[in-house]
Automatic annotation (TrEMBL):
InterPro entries: Bact_Lucif_Oxidored, CmoO-like, Luciferase-like_dom, Luciferase-like_sf. The lineage of its organism: Bacteria, Pseudomonadati, Bacteroidota, Cytophagia, Cytophagales. One of its GO terms (cellular component) is cytosol. GO terms for molecular function: oxidoreductase activity, acting on paired donors, with incorporation or reduction of molecular oxygen. To bacterial alkanal monooxygenase alpha and beta chains. It comes from Hymenobacter nivis. This is Luciferase-like monooxygenase. Residues 11-327 form the Luciferase-like domain.
């Protein structure tokens, strides 16, 4: 059974493995390993990797492989998927892959599951081939994964070896209210992608908490908010660094994904009013500033959402500045409190 105790908010990392302009995916992976090693020292709880395909700006098309790479270069940090897009994969294959990782790195592997393709439709079709069940099969596939991970499956005709009996922790990811109902019904932790889809964050958390059913995995709701963070020594420097994030989102909404661009003095020449509004709406839950600003804004957010965990994505052009941003974030989050919500998560291993 999972136990929770009141404590300060947990803080973690989401890494999209962004490819910065002038660099290669190999550079990105080395930077991810260095970042994982640095945040492990700073007390971060988990480090999740996303799944995206056919994007010139993102190198995380195979999160399971990257999880193993980073787990091998760290010692205590939890590595996970944020997430594996389950409609792209057969549940048995996912169970075997995560079971292998959990066997190699016991007690350190998380499985975050999403229902989106992580790509455009043509790419999704290329990935899935004849598997067109996809989104509508997501609840059944999640439960199938739970079965493969359970010791009770030992007498079944189809088994996940390794994986069986490991009860790898499963998290449900969402960017709308749909997955909130599923996470609540299955009694699983719920992570919301408010770093790019902020509109339904509060509604999704309300649905999740109001409909939550305790399970063998989780005694009470556990909510994670993924947010953008760009921190620096001063507010002005953070605002300047954040123009790389704005350019990144602009390329996404324009349908022309490009490598992460260096900061600019002004975004005015790069976007029109409609594009600016669209980007700003997507980045509504972005925390940008120096240490004092960051701590105050995060305290307001935690008070409003009563979230258990902050998972930060920092798409910053400079690797050194990105590491420093996570250092500042760790300090800021140690200074905020979560007086009413319960925030420690400990699955049965």
């Amino acid at each position: 059974m999972l136990t929770n105790t009141a404590a300060s908010v947990v803080f973690s990392v989401l890494d999209l493995a962004p490819i910065a302009a002038g660099t290669t995916p190999a550079d990105t992976f080395r930077h991810s390993l260095d970042l994982a090693q640095q945040v492990e020292k700073q007390g971060y709880t988990r480090y999740w990797l996303s799944e995206h395909h056919n994007m010139a700006s993102v190198a995380s098309s195979a999160p399971v492989v990257l999880m193993g790479y980073l787990a091998g270069g760290t010692t205590t940090l939890r590595l996970g998927s944020g997430g594996i897009m389950l409609p792209n994969h057969a549940p048995l294959v996912v169970a075997e892959q995560l079971g292998t990782l959990a066997t190699l790195y016991p007690g350190r592997i998380d499985l975050g599951l999403g229902r989106a393709p992580g790509s455009d439709q043509a790419t999704a079709q290329a990935i899935r081939g004849g598997r067109f069940g996809g989104v509508q099969d997501f609840p059944r596939d999640v439960q199938q994964l739970q079965t493969y991970f359970s010791a009770a499956n030992s007498t079944a005709a189809v088994r996940a070896i390794p994986g069986e009996g490991l009860d790898v922790p499963i998290y449900i990811l969402g960017s709308s209210t749909d997955s909130a109902y599923l996470a609540a019904a299955l009694g699983l932790p719920y992570a919301f992608a408010s770093h790019f889809a902020p509109a339904q964050l509060m509604a999704a958390f309300d649905i999740y908490r109001q409909n939550f059913r305790p399970s063998a995995a989780l005694a009470q709701p556990y909510a994670i908010a993924c947010v953008n963070v760009v921190a620096a020594d001063t507010d002005a420097e953070a605002q300047w660094l954040s123009t790389s994030l704005q350019q990144f989102m602009l390329s996404v909404i324009s349908g022309r994904p490009a490598p992460l661009a260096p900061p600019v003095e002004s975004m005015a020449p790069l976007w029109g009013p409609a594009q600016q509004q669209a980007v700003q709406q997507m980045l509504a839950y972005s925390f940008i500033g120096g240490p004092a600003t960051l701590q105050a804004d995060l305290q307001d957010f935690i008070d409003q959402t009563q979230v258990n965990e902050i998972m930060a994505v920092s798409n910053i052009f400079s690797h050194a500045a990105r590491i420093h941003s996570y250092e500042i974030l760790a300090g800021a989050l140690r200074g905020v409190t979560q007086p009413e919500a319960e925030s420690q998560l400990a699955f049965k291993e």
